[in-house]
Amino acid sequence: MKYYIGKLPVTPYLEHFGILGMKWGIRRYQNLDGSLTAEGKVRYGYSNTKVEKPVKWKTKLSAKDKEDIRIDKNTEFQNISMNEARSKNGHVYVSYTDHDNILYSGFYASTLKDWYDAKKVYLNKIKVKDDLIAPSKEKRIQEFIDMYSDQKTETIDYLTYGKLHTLNLATMVNMLPFVDLTKHYTKKYSDLGEDQLAKLYPDFSAYMVGEYGKEDWGRKEYFDRLQKKGYNAIIDDHDIKDFGSDAPMIIFNGNKTISDVVSRIMSDEEINKKYEEAVNNALAKK
User: Is 47 among the domain residues?
Assistant: First the structure.
């Protein structure tokens, strides 16, 4: 038997213990063919695009809700406007399915005539320069959550104003006494988690379609954020929920996106006929 004092004679070898969560054969920043993943390109400076983090909120979404929407540029879009033909300026509300075209040229055109006392109602046919690309429902909700996180004070103020405006309308319609709930809702919206914000998104989407002044900030800020990510349109979630539409859209920047608008005045007879068609379609859905 040999005894050693000091260092023991050993044969050099390499030992690897791995990293917590690592799986053999799977690389974090590379694909199987050796090319860099999206995260790898950011990691090693080949891309400035931020890798999207998985959502934390728990609202149930279908597989379709996680897919972006692309509408071919050759599609003919429709818009209904009152008193003047639709220009290319600003954001533009459009429909493109047969169901939605009848719905808006019937129900919405009738509303403009009967409720808003429109002297003329225009049916505008719209062509676009490029495909319309809109974010998935998952991304629409996440962008709202991110906006709240990035600009909390302004978003809380916006949500409070939208809620109070909705309540004030109900108060006037039902002839109830007015109560100032500004402090109540400012406090209520001041510390919301992602799950709460995801559930609040339908209200947010409703406030965006108003034309009452302060809503313009939230709409503009939200649309600008999505445009910076490469989108040029968004699904109108409010009309899907409250108006019975299938796939209404809002084009962000008409001047940049719209190539042509052909307008004509709708007759009362045409509006009434479209209204009857819209009613029959609604009954057939039930």
Answer: no
